[in-house]
Automatic annotation (TrEMBL), chain A:
Residues 6-366 form the Aminotransferase class V domain. It comes from the Archaea. The keyword Iron applies. It comes from Methanococcoides vulcani. Its cofactor is pyridoxal 5'-phosphate. It holds the Pfam family Aminotran_5. Belongs to the class-V pyridoxal-phosphate-dependent aminotransferase family. NifS/IscS subfamily. This is Cysteine desulfurase. The lineage of its organism: Archaea, Methanobacteriati, Methanobacteriota, Stenosarchaea group, Methanomicrobia. GO terms for molecular function: iron-sulfur cluster binding; metal ion binding; transferase activity. Keywords: Iron, Iron-sulfur, Metal-binding, Pyridoxal phosphate, Transferase.
UniProtKB/TrEMBL annotation, chain B:
This is Nitrogen fixation protein NifU. Residues 137-207 form the MIP18 family-like domain. It comes from Methanococcoides vulcani. Residues 5-126 form the NIF system FeS cluster assembly NifU N-terminal domain. GO terms for molecular function: iron ion binding; iron-sulfur cluster binding.
Length: 389, 211
């Protein structure tokens, strides 16, 4: 058997960094009060300071001001808040149309589908075979009634990076608000709101070795947005609920721990997988863009075999990866991302996502490639499909 | 280690029995499902006098439960007569495997269908099949017993998911007791369409949801 799991599913979630836990600990056991105003008691003032220091770290990583960052329970909440909050604030003005891409995470896609059921008009923008949004289609879709465009910065599954500057320029020119889900690109790929006129940005801690259950939403000053959960006046009266201060502190620490060198190492592991697999295993397709791509993501289709069979064999050999196969998913549906780039069920069926994190090494990349060579050959030997049919 | 399958399933998955393409089979069945994407091919060698399955093999393009079920079902069928083999059910295969996850039932039922279609292929080639049956509500109902309800792991007829079946000159309409936005709605719909479109006299298949 094997001694440890080689975890290559960091896009799903990551192992917490010990240093993050260390930074969070005092806010569980010493400074555990709620954040109070500056006229509160000392422990509450200390807690508030911890929260505001963390906010500055997140803001600075985005090139934003601290008062433009609201902590949330994670990406799903951030994106729901961005979309529903803006639509609520624009009610009666520009409120009947939104635009999203077909590649969005379910937190955006299913929010859009629910709004469509409620009577909103929703346009789903197509992407090309690499997953890049069709800018002409986007331009054409924007009308005077468009309240919001929501297009992700990086794709969760195939790692494609959008030209978010070009998208933001289009939206600015047409005077439409733009939200981008940067869950997978945050700290891995620069996104500076000072340079790029995006209005709302979703970010999360758990994809960068921070705690689960904490994220943030950047809201450009002056953006019309309403609260979508009623309650107290926390977070500039934008997000009700007792602040998750240990979470915020953990998130900030996680952001501070990411370095450009680490991102280069992730990229090297990603490239090793992409290059070696394509050179050493036949009938393999790279999903997503070869150039405009997250540094930590590789996604490949192994034709003529099914993804869950590959992942189960790999699991028994000590590797954790995920697949876009219908057989693996909770809904039994093939990946909407692979289908969205023009792939068929077969392409989704045999697709594997390898996502790297801080605790992976080049040895992990090499060992999974060796394992794949064995598994894919064995499964192809019993498959009724093959290259010559 | 915590795997989603029983020890028997994992064993058959790791070392499947009776695998590979057979040269000059007496009967051959290929079943596939677009919803899950899985495919199973089953090959038979049959003794023409005793009608006993003397050799059997399969190929699978599918997930673990698909491969394991094909492996066990070929074990179960070997040495049986065609009539006996026809009666092997998914439930027997599942029991022999120590149980399959409910949500995976529809992938594994394909192996059973692969075996039956290989037997039918043999029977058709050897003039053992009487003329084709026209599709009516009863035929549709029988066919839908092979579409699994992933919520329960039993077919959609037995779990009363099918509210209505209308057959009108080759055009079939099926109404399901499920909202269209349900987690499994799209997968079940595709599965139904695939099963019914395969019938020889069917022109179109529509699947509607209650909301």
């Amino acid at each position: 058997m094997f001694d440890k799991t080689v975890y290559l599913d960091n896009a799903a979630s990551t192992r917490l960094d010990e240093r993050v836990l260390e930074a969070m600990n005092p806010y569980f056991f010493d400074t555990y009060a709620v954040a109070t105003s500056e006229f509160g008691y000392s422990m509450g003032i200390d807690a508030k300071e911890g929260l505001e220091r963390s906010r500055k770290v997140i803001a600075s990583a985005l090139g934003a001001n601290a008062n433009e960052v609201v902590f949330t329970s994670g990406s799903t909440e951030s994106s729901n808040m961005a979309i529903k909050g803006v639509l609520s604030a624009l009610k009666g003005k520009k409120d009947d149309h939104i635009i999203v891409s077909r590649m969005e995470d379910f937190s955006v896609l299913n929010t859009a589908k629910m709004l469509e059921k409620q009577g909103y008009k929703v346009d789903f923008i197509s992407v090309d075979s690499e997953g890049i949004v069709d800018l002409e289609m986007l331009k054409a879709a924007i009308t005077p009634q468009t309240a919001l465009v929501s297009i992700q910065h990086a794709n969760q599954e195939i790692g494609t990076l959008q030209d978010i500057k070009a998208i933001a320029d289009i939206c600015k020119e047409k005077e439409v608000l733009l939200h981008t889900d940067a869950t997978h690109s945050f700290t891995r790929v620069p996104l500076d709101v000072d340079q790029i006129p995006v209005d709302l940005v979703t970010v999360s801690a758990h994809t960068i070795h921070g705690p689960r259950g904490v994220g943030a939403l950047y809201i450009r000053e002056g953006t019309p947005i309403n609260k979508w959960m009623d309650g107290g006046f926390q977070e500039f009266d934008r997000r009700a609920g007792i602040e998750n201060i240990p979470g915020a502190v953990g998130f900030a620490t996680a952001v501070e721990l990411v370095t450009p060198e680490e991102n280069e190492q992730l990229k090297a592991m990603r490239d090793r997988i992409i290059e070696r697999v394509q050179a050493e295993i036949s009938s393999v397709t790279l999903n997503g863009s070869a150039t405009s791509r997250l540094p930590q993501n590789a996604n490949l289709t192994f034709h003529y075999v099914e993804g869950e069979s590959i992942t189960l064999h790999l699991d028994m050999m000590g590797f954790a990866v995920s697949t876009g196969s219908a057989c693996f998913s909770r809904s039994l549906e093939a990946s909407h991302v692979i289908l969205g780039i023009g792939g068929d069920h077969e392409r989704a069926h045999g697709s594997l996502r390898f996502s790297f994190g801080r605790f992976n090494t080049m040895e992990d990349a090499d060992s999974i490639i060796d394992a794949l060579k064995e598994v894919v050959v064995n499964l192809r030997a019993i498959s009724p499909l093959s290259a010559d049919e | 280690m915590n795997f989603p399958y029983s020890k028997e399933v994992l064993e058959h998955f790791k070392n499947p029995h009776n695998v590979g393409k057979m040269e000059d089979p007496d009967g051959k069945g290929l079943e596939g499902s677009a919803a899950c994407g899985d495919m199973v091919a089953v090959y038979l060698k049959v003794n023409p006098d005793s009608l006993v399955i003397e050799d059997i093999s399969f190929e699978s393009y599918g997930c673990a439960s698909n491969i394991a079920t094909a492996s066990i079902i070929t074990d179960l069928a070997k040495g049986k007569t065609l009539d006996e083999a026809k009666k092997i059910t998914w439930k027997q295969a599942s029991e022999a495997l120590g149980g399959l996850p409910a949500v995976k039932a529809h992938c594994s039922v394909l192996a059973v269908e692969g075996l039956r279609s290989a037997i039918r292929d043999y029977e058709e080639k050897h003039g053992m099949v009487v003329e084709k049956e026209p599709t009516d509500e009863e035929v549709v109902r029988r066919r839908l017993k092979h579409v699994m309800n992933p919520i329960k792991g039993l077919d959609i007829i037995r779990t009363e998911l099918v509210m209505k079946i209308v057959v009108n000159e080759g055009n079939i309409r099926v109404v399901l007791d499920l909202p269209s936005h349900h987690q499994f709605a799209a997968a079940i719909k595709e599965d139904i369409i695939e099963k019914l479109e395969a019938l020889w006299d069917v022109e179109s298949v529509t699947v509607d949801f209650i909301s």
